Predict the structure of TolC family protein.
Amino acid sequence: MYRNIVFALCGCILSLGVFAQSATIDSILKQVEQNNQELKALVTYVESERLELKSGNNLPDPQFGAYYLPFGENSTGDYTEFQISQSFEFPTVYRARGSLIEQQTVQLKLDYKAKRQEVLVQAKDYCLNLIYLHKRLNSETLRVKQATQVFEQVQELYEKEQVGILELNKAKVAWMQEQFKIQQIENDIKNIMSLLSHLNGGTEIQFSSGEYETSLKLADKESIWQEKQIQDPELVQLKQQEAIAQQALKLAKNNSLPNLTAGYNHQGVSGAYNSGVYAGVTIPLWSNRNKVKAAQSQVDFQQTHTSSRTLQAQATFEKQYSEYQIMLSKFQEYQATLSGMNTEELLLQAYQLGELSFLEYYMELLYYRQAYDAMQEMQYQLYISQNQFLKHQL
């Protein structure tokens, strides 16, 4: 029984450990979206602007006026009058303005979505940078181990007077350089973690993955472009601005209809009075002049602007897609060439057998490592480009 309890506790501890280490980029982005202070502030701003827009479609306040005229020479007594009235625009104006407010509210939500995308793209860039730095840290840790081994061997040979002081100094400098690289990478990781925590509203994030989570392959160009037109806030906003202009034109046309006033009027003198309904019409002969033409011009502008910006965005998209595919092909060639090599181990064996001097060994090793580092850098840049390319999916 006790053994079963121990096994159960161990299982719980292991599961908790796995959970603690299972932070993914998606989970990080969800945290950032929830905790980012700028996004929180923008949510409040969007709501305040939405309410402000809605208030613009309220009825004007009712009016109450009264007269009491006790002075003067008359035989009928003091004159009194009061009136309550309510002015309002033609009913279709409120409907048109309400539709415009709905379109403007959609625009506000798209503004938030664009800012959210900007924040999440930056957060994902930081995560990708951390993965790249951890991969480099793993490589440099192994290189320090190898450099330590070589330095100790050279030191032994120096003590046996089989190599000179110059050979020993070269090995020591190489060993120190590798150690310095680790310190630099660890400092870079610390700085990126600090930036990521700032995006997360100051809350620290635990993320130490050393492997990229997605493939570098992209879907076909046409399907991605169709997806971007539907999901990318920058492109959707163009269509939304056009819809707002169309609705503003409808409102301008409805504003040509008369404003109305209705109310109750009471007039009285010496116990006698007259009362009844009051009605009035304001004909907008001058107030709406040229406003319909201006609204139509805005519609024409937005349609042309949307078409121009969409074509420009498509051209940029196709250029980026082509460049990405070329870079991916080059990376795959690098990867295929370097993955089958065991150069570092072979060079170390050749050095240990005395087939290479330390300088020859180190120069050959440096050449191979530069090629490997360039491949890692290329892989990282591809993921950064992919993040920018597919940001509409965040």
Notes: The chain is about 70% helix and 10% strand. The longest helix spans residues 91-159.
